[in-house]
Amino acid sequence: MDNNQGTMEPHVRTWEQTVRNVQVRKVENQGPRIKREKLTVSFMIGQYCSGHHSREERKHAASNDKQVIKLCWDCYCLHQYAMKRLGLCQFGEKKTTCVECPVHCYKPAMRNQIKEVMKYSGPRMLLSHPVLTVWHLLDQKGDKRTPSS
């Protein structure tokens, strides 16, 4: 066929074009700030679950790098979701606390669940995990001092 009618030649793609069109899975953040946030959220979810759900319901094991916690199915799903969201946070080690974040990466239903968990567990964390609570409060205080960009 001639060029006026179109060619039947296969389109040859360069390596750069192929790579550019392939979605690359983002590497999860593993820095100290993210690890601390994960640990804090994990303990909060564990505390919420133990305060709201029976021992028989809590049969799903979730690890937070320090210990394995037993959660009910709903709390386990929330835990897994929260760990994934924190691991893939676009701000990485420079992230703010989630309440101060300009990007809300949680789905609305999960966001409501984590708010409920934090409302219940936040005050109780001071007694059960005072060091994590102080770190979290310092992170929040630091968020307000840094200008948003």
Could you please describe the fold and organization of this structure?
The chain is mainly alpha-helical and about 150 residues long. It is about 55% helix and about 5% strand. It is built from five helices and two strands, in the order ααββααα. The longest helix is centred in the first third of the chain and has 21 residues, at about 30-50. Mean pLDDT is about 80; it is low at about 15-20 and about 145-149.
Please give the structural blueprint.
Elements: H1 15-21, H2 32-52, E1 60-63, E2 68-71, H3 73-87, H4 108-128, H5 130-145
Antiparallel strand pairs: 1-2
Helix pairs in contact: 2-3, 2-4, 4-5
Helix content: 40-55%
Q: Can you write the helix and strand succession as a string? A: HHEEHHH
**Parts with pLDDT < 50 across at least 5 consecutive residues:** 15-19, 145-149
Q: How does the major sheet shape up?
A: 2 strands, antiparallel
Strand content: 5-15%
Spatial separation of the terminal alpha carbons = 56 Å
Structural class computed from helices and strand pairing = mainly alpha
What radius of gyration results from the CA coordinates?
22 Å
Multimeric status of the protein: single chain
Number of helices: 5
Mean pLDDT level: 78
Number-wise, the strands total: 2
CA-based shape? globular
